[in-house]
Amino acid sequence: MSTTAPAPGKPVADERLLKTSPLKKFLGRPELGSVVGALAVFLFFAIVADSFLRTTSLATVLYAASTIGIMAVPVALLMIGGEFDLSAGVMVTTSALISSMFSYQMTANVWVGVGVSLLATLAIGVFNGVMLIRTDPPSFIITLGTFLMLTGANLGFTKLISDTVSTKSISDMEGFSSAKDVFASTITIGDVDFKITIVWWLAMIAVATWILLRTRAGNWIFAVGGGEHAARAVGVPVGKTKIGLYMGVAFGAWVSGQHLLFNYDVVQSGEGVGNELIYIIAAVIGGCLITGGYGSAVGAAVGALIFGMTSKGIVYAEWNPDWFKFFLGAMLLLATLLNAWVRKRAEATK
Amino acid sequence: MTTEAVAKEETAPADRTPLVELDAVSKYYGNIRALEGVSLEVHAGEISCVLGDNGAGKSTLIKIIAGLHQHDAGTLRIEGEETRLSSPREALDRGIATVYQDLAVVPLMPVWRNFFLGSEPTKGTGPFKRMDVDLMRRTTHAELLRMGIDLRDVDQPIGTLSGGERQCVAIARAVYFGAKVLVLDEPTAALGVKQSGVVLKYVAAARDAGLGVVLITHNPHHAYLVGNRFVLLKRGAMSGSHARDEITLDELTRQMAGGSELDDLRHELEQAPEPDLRGDGGAP
């Protein structure tokens, strides 16, 4: 095929391409809305709350952000892949309960429980994914079912086994301190204590970004979310990609769950309900398109950071914490509008 | 109708095995006859056109060739070997690439990601196995340039390209990945005259590169410009099959437009009383 087109001007490429300024490139990034929002929130609380800028406060903010971010990052990937997971919040509790109860009942090393919990949580993720691709209903309904089942099972099994709504303490068991080092320790830099969840969070951002932008799987995630039929027609393994995404969320739930367990020693079986929406909101603030096919892991992480700053900032400003939800809702609306506007601009720039 | 044309034996020389050959292929969805007794040959370096109105069975025919559906009767031969395609992947692996009307592109994704979607080249091993992004960008740019599309930026979402450009990207992608047979589903349907011309040029270019092309269309003018053989479908059955030298554009258009039915319609229209367009009850 040697047909050369009547290209206007020189036959060499790029000459017609106007120089894209770095600013314009930045405006086209999905993270933009969240970064601007994060800066605004940071400045706001830096002004109204005196104690907000102390390093200890920042460490607290980062800790709050990381516990949300560990889940928001895989949830964002799932949303880019075009699906939701409403069971993500209670799955964290489920994962912690399984770990704790298995170790306690079997009087095994806690690491055995941690391992069993990993397998069980991943299995829940696989269940979500397989149910979704084998049947027709939207993931909203499927995972709503999983959400209700897990909520019930968390309480039911815990009451059945330990007669209360919380698990027995496992702090005197073998392996507890090493597991606590991994999931719930504190790293002191200077005289500031940072929680290890921040490290987990950063690691997940890095891995998720790598997968999304530089691997075949990442290409497939964008494709199944942005155009499932097209993806299937060119041979993308749509089913496997989606199951993988649900397993990613399950992995995040496992990390969060183990943190809960080893940080507090006992697990309240009713926890986690409602958190799934927080993860989704963080992802949306971070620029993930609710219909799939667009977004970034970094954006979701920044979304989680906004959460952390807002929830703690209100405390430092000594306001009534009831205002937290109001702030959150306003933030969500603003971020959505800003993202829609930015995306339109980005697509219109030809 | 020209039923005798259906019965006519294919006159293709026996020394050449068609790349794809359908022989009296039928497809039923429950009790619905979607396609019955359709025969089609696709040779290397030729364009076989499938013409038909809406609901004639064109889409079903494509789906059988593309491996999305299996035929219920008749035989499908690929390079002389009788076969039954179980998936689009298998069709692709055997060199049959289909460019659908929706083009199978993901609008929000950059052009280069779309170009390699499903067949991304990788480098590195283990956890560092990654897409060869540089190669992908360069190849996309070069391949599109060969098609005459001087892309401003391979990073732009493919949804921002014009319909004709997107069509050409889809064709370029199929050619690059070594398709032997290119199935095009109404490539000019949504395009203006000029863009249609651009697309037809690349269809012809693909033919000249030695590919066998199946061009599905309901535009006999476009078909006659590039086609070597023409198969007409009507209500799921084959209503005609002609080589290029056996039929004129006028005859093709007439058959396509409904043939004798069109004559009837014209007759009816001539007979009809002049409609009252003034709306004043026909008062003088």
Structure write-up:
The complex is a heterodimer of chains A (350) and B (284). Chain A has helices at 22-27, 32-48, 55-80, 88-106, 110-134, 139-162, 176-184, 197-214, 216-226, 228-233, 238-264, 275-285, 297-316, 323-348; strands at 186-189, 192-195. Chain A is an all-alpha fold and 350 residues long. Chain A has one domain (32-44, 52-342): Orthogonal Bundle (ABC transporter involved in vitamin B12 uptake, BtuC), CATH 1.10.3470. In chain A, α3 (55-80) packs parallel to α8 and α3 runs antiparallel to α13. Chain A is globular. Chain B is α/β, with parallel strands linked by helices and 284 residues long. Chain B has a domain at 16-110 and 180-270: P-loop containing nucleotide triphosphate hydrolases (Rossmann fold, 3-Layer(aba) Sandwich). Helices cover 34% and strands 24% of the residues of chain B. Chain B has a 6-stranded mixed sheet with strand order 6-9-10-3-11-12, with helices on both faces. The termini of chain B are far apart.
Please tag this protein with its features.
heterodimer, A: 350 residues, mainly alpha, ABC transporter involved in vitamin B12 uptake, BtuC, 14 helices, 2 strands, 70% helix, disordered N terminus, B: 284 residues, alpha/beta, Rossmann fold, six-stranded mixed sheet, four-stranded antiparallel sheet, 10 helices, 12 strands, globular
